[in-house]
Amino acid sequence: MKESEKESVKDRAEGKYHQMKGSLKEAAGKALNKPGTTLKGKAEKTAGKVQEKVGRAERSSHK
Questions:
Q1: DSSP one-letter code for 33
Q2: What is the reported pTM?
Q3: In this structure, is the dihedral angle defined by the CA atoms of residues 29, 33, 36 and 42, taken in order, positive or negative?
């Protein structure tokens, strides 16, 4: 596996991780009635989606 392929796999995995972590923060914020935590969770989830898409795009460009 080439270094660039490793990076795309890493980006996709980290993106999924941040999406999951963001979802948990968002749910905790809603459950505890903490809007700031809810917003931070949404932001992290969105950033994770972007990072995963970057990984997918890198993978597609290396084929």
A1: T
A2: 0.85
A3: positive
Best CA proximity match to 26, nearest among 16, 13, 35: 35
Task: Identify the residue whose tokens are 């969105």.
Answer: 46
pLDDT per residue of the chain (63 residues) written in tens, 0 to 9: 677 778 889 999 999 999 999 999 999 999 999 999 999 999 999 999 999 999 888 777 766
DSSP tag of 40: H
8 Å CB contact between 48 and 26:
no
DSSP 34: -
- Among 58, 48, 63, which residue's Cα sits nearest to residue 7? 58
Q: Are 8 and 55 in contact (CB under 8 A)?
A: yes
Contact 2, 56 (CB under 8 A): no
